[in-house]
Amino acid sequence: MRPVLDVRDLSVSFGGVPAVRELSCSVRRGEVLGIVGESGSGKSVTSAAVMGLLPQGARVTGSVRLHGRELIGAPARELTSYRGKAMSMVFQDPLSALTPVYRVGDQIAEAVRVHQRVGKEAALVKAVQLLDLVGIPQPSERALAFPHEFSGGMRQRVMIAMAIANDPDVIICDEPTTALDVTVQAQVLEVLKKAQRKTGAAIIMITHDLGVVAGFADRVLVMYAGRPVEVGGVDDVYYRTRMPYTAGLLGSIPRVDGGGRPLTPIEGSPPSPGALPPGCPFAPRCPMRIDACERDEPPLFEVGDGHHAACIRWKEVAPYDADASGAPGSARPAPRRATRAVLEVRGLVKDYPLFKGSLFRRRVGTVHAVAGVGFDLREGETLGLVGESGSGKTTTLTQILELAAPQAGVITVLGHDTARLDAARRTEIRREMQVVFQDPLASLDPRMTVHDILAEPLRTHGRPPGRRVGELLSLVGLDPSHAARYPQDFSGGQRQRIAVARALALEPRLLVLDEPVSALDVSIQAGVINLLGSLRARLGLSYLFVAHDLAVVRHIADRVAVMYLGRIAEIGQADAVYEAPAHPYTQALLSAIPLPDPVRERARDRVLLEGDLPSPA
User: Fold this and answer.
1) C-alpha angle 550/551/557, rounded to 5°?
2) In what order do the strands lie in the sheet with 307-309?
């Protein structure tokens, strides 16, 4: 069968800086090709180049053929006739992709009328049918709604409806589930499968999530530094890996079936497209590099039937073994004997009033953000507080960190009721309880050097910085000689290590970690997870680890509390919760998390939740 879309030697550069280098791939009707890689690998630029959506300053060479027709250099009018009809696209952020001032039914109908000779009424009827196909409840009524009246998952369903409106031959999905909660992600992937069965289209799934690709794709293309480094059938790439980078990605992914297995991070960070190292661009991070790797960039060698890898030592690459330990130690230290509590939360409540009107404001309701939450955290323990958007995690965290009287309930930190703290004791407790935020670039002052950032809390509490700054950098695996640099001079993972070092400056007993790895690429986040585990074992710290990713929590938490609509739905020992979840919501959460294992992923029975998370109001 001839490919529907055939890409050969595609290269894209911006101002002389290469973003995509000599990429070749093809996809046949009914086939799913997964393109995976970390931030900056060239995935999204590839999709934009194929669709002809690059800005004018981009320089594009190579060939992109749709049904044999060359698209590179084709007139804009011809490309417009293909977009939305023969080829369509589902973007990462549906809120910015949909026009906010038009009803969703009108937007889908417009996509129909651009390519089909139908009247306005017939196009609206087709729009309602498409909304029904993608699982929008009450499609006739919802077609009259505006994008802001839909949840993120429902907006993405609208985008899929628009993408399949004209029965395309190719659907390009650019990170379509990245911004969605895991249960909504599972729903959207099911809708995509249904849409493919309906249209028979080929799908190019662009993602950083190897778990999504494992159960969805037929073939996989792994990108690094702008070019493919491994291509093959999904089983070949996952079970017979022949590229160290792919093996490193698989080893660094947290898994819900990992049982606390230590992660194997990839050292360093991806190179800048404008400053690629000589030879193989992965060589500076590769554990198998030899001198020859730094001389010439390797081509894609054929390592099996339809399987190619860009590594001169591909015969020596050991296939990734999900059941083997990849590194000494563990992110989750051995359980400790019962110790005293460092944090106790009892009956915590937080409501927010809802008002309507601007001139004559009136209260129309109440959002019950937190409703009777209670848990405790003991010395040397890690408690994972997990849940989807709107579950109340952040509000609970805010109540704890404010160290003030809650609306209702009791918060006790190190034996002290926070509602009864005087100013001096509150300062003392703040020293014992520190926080690491989600985005290190936003939480670190860009105008201060790393030395000043780490010295600031020491000086505030009357301690001379002295050698402590260098000790802190060494503690988190950074070079003390880099203390004179600024945060923007470091990679994302290094910045998060600096944030951890700042939190440890005053030798606290309790760390509150608010989504500390969610903004990091998978190979980088593995190193931070392992660092947190080793610091906890070495310093005897207690962690309140707030996250939406249950796979990450599995690797670091002793106990897990699952939140839903402002309440704790389930709490218990991590192994018990993961292996035998009791609450239906926990069961749905765990079953929705994709596994980077094609055989296990295809064999799973998912518990799919219907609709959206109910409003806490």
Assistant:
1) 70
2) 87-90, 170-174, 202-207, 32-36, 219-224, 227-233, 307-309, 301-304
Tell me what pLDDT residue 324 has: 54
Per-residue pLDDT tens over the stretch 209-241: 999 999 999 999 999 999 999 999 999 999 999
State the CB neighbour count (10 A cutoff) for residue 524: 25
pLDDT tens by residue, 16-73: 999 999 999 999 999 999 999 988 899 999 999 999 999 989 999 999 999 999 999 9
Q: Which of 108, 104, 102 is nearest to 141 (CA)?
A: 104
SS3 540: coil
Give the whole-angstrom CA distance, residue 224 versus residue 36. Answer: 9
Complete edge-to-edge strand list for the sheet that includes strand 69-70: 17-27, 5-14, 58-66, 69-70
The count of C-alpha atoms lying within 13 angstroms of the C-alpha of 5, restricted to the half-sphere facing its C-beta, is 29
Considering the segment(s) 25-55+74-86+169-322 as one domain, its CATH architecture is 3-Layer(aba) Sandwich (3.40)
- List, for residues 463-517, the tens digit of each pLDDT value: 999 899 999 999 999 999 999 999 999 988 899 999 999 999 999 999 999 999 9
C-alpha span between 124 and 108 (Å, rounded): 8
Fold of 342-595: Rossmann fold (3.40.50)
The interaxial angle of helices 522-539 and 492-504, nearest 10 deg, is 20
Selection from 498, 502, 524, 416 nearest residue 457 by Cα: 502
Beta bridge partners of 434: 511
* Residue pair 503/444 in contact by the 8 Å Cβ criterion: no
Strands 362-378 and 341-356: antiparallel
For 104, counting Cβ atoms within 10 Å of its Cβ (0-12 exposed, 13-18 middle, 19+ buried), the class is buried
- CA neighbor of 62 nearest in space, from 25, 87, 99: 25
Decide: 270 and 223 in contact? Cβ < 8 Å: no
Q: What angle do CA 540, 542, 547 make, to 5 degrees?
A: 140
Pairing verdict, β 58-66 and 69-70: antiparallel
Indicate the burial class of 317 (C-beta count within 10 angstroms; 0-12, 13-18, 19 or more).
Answer: buried
Q: Return phi, psi of residue 511, to 5°.
A: -115, 130
Dump pLDDT digits (tens) for 544-603.
999 988 999 999 999 999 999 999 999 999 999 999 999 999 999 999 999 999 999 988
Q: Where in the chain is the domain with CATH 3.40.50.300?
A: 25-55+74-86+169-322, 342-595
| Per-chain mean pLDDT for the chain | 91
Whole-angstrom Cα distance, residue 105 to residue 512? 45
182-199 vs 120-133: helix axis angle to the nearest 10? 120
The amino acid sitting at 459 is R
- Pairwise CA distance, residues 145 & 373, whole Å: 35
